[in-house]
Give the backbone structure.
Amino acid sequence: MAARVLLITVAVALLAGCGGKGGEAPGATTAPVPTTTVVPALADASTDPAVWDSGVTATALLTAVRAARHDGYDRIVFEFRNTLPGYSVSYVERPIVADGSGDEVTVAGAAVLQVRLEPALDADLSQESAPATYTGPTRFSPDAAIVAELVRTGGFEAVLTWVAGLDGKHPFRVTRLQSPPRLVLDVQST
């Protein structure tokens, strides 16, 4: 045991003697370490598909779609009146086609991120006149860093589909929020 303590003491003394000012060896230079900016909130972002089954039978009613630029990411928000639908968010290849009709839909940007919401609609079919619950634009270009355009590509048989045209394929993260129910997509821009 005494030999072990002596050995540790000698090792510590030798290591302490090797360092120069600030723990560097005499004459050593420190090269800058390259860094990559990662927004802490997006550390878990990925380009892999994100899928979630809400397990609800009620149809989620879309009320708002918005997007905005933030430091290091663009945020896309889908807001609902009553509940959150299940979702599938993934990058898709062109051509982009409208649900139901199969018509080709043009989308600005180099990459397309598809958001498929189910069960979800943007009109309340439980009311006689089936009033629209989302009355905003179905195609718009937000003030964002990498989101070039958001386009509604379908609302068919309780499946609501939107696509985001991006300047390239970026990691993203999906978050579910309540009060009011919101699906939030943060797409990393740096």
The first helix runs from residue 2 to 18. The CA atoms of residues 85 and 150 lie 19 Å apart.
